[in-house]
Amino acid sequence: MIDYALYFVIVFFLSILFSMGGAGAGIAVIPILSMLGIEFNLAKAVGLFVGFSTTATSTAMNIKRKVFDVKFVLPLALTLVISAPIGAQLSRFVDKGLIKLLFALFLIISASMMMFFKKKAKTDFQKPWILAILGLIIGILAGLLGVGGGNMLLPILILLGYEPKRVAVAVSFAIPLSAFTSFLSYASFVQMDWTLLSVATLAAVLGGYIGNYFMHFKLTQAQIKKIIALILYILAIKMLLSL
What we know:
This protein has one domain (2-242). Helix content is 79%, strand content 0%. The chain is built from ten helices and no strands. It has helices at residues 2-20, 26-35, 40-65, 70-90, 96-116, 128-145, 150-159, 164-187, 194-213, 221-242. The radius of gyration is 17 Å and the shape is globular. The two termini are 29 Å apart.
């Protein structure tokens, strides 16, 4: 029970911080749980469900408000939902050391995006088939690593010329769906710790709610993102050193 209390506190405070920065905490929850002795695939499954739980509300709100373009969202959402579980299944056959190396590199890239990425298009290449191909590739990578994939999709779509607000709405709709299907894929072969899953989910939902409430409290979102980026850099370094 002491371990579960520790997991609750960690996920709770991470969720507060990450939600204040407009990001999902799953990316940090996974390596920390792994460092605390949780089996890596189980940590990924928990991280995916945490991500789904904390972002599903925004998806439901977007559906209710009808603020997304169905023609734009559909190719992305469908391919992500199909390919993410495939990536999760592939993780059974890929060396865990290699996946951890890729995850550490993903942390470094995500942290660098938070630190330095400017939301400016570099080209104007907006085709539905591009969205479908991106969804397939990102979905497989996201499923393999056990992440939602939003950190990969957002900058690529913006660089391709898509309007940032439109991209944000599309990703907020598609990523929770792919995270959930990826979680189900992991749950089919991972020995699930349902108590850990419940504790982490409760902590994430509560922390996310509090973080959203205090989003504009004292620190700006840009400052919070820099703090998050530093945490991700530290986690990446620790993962690389442990390989």
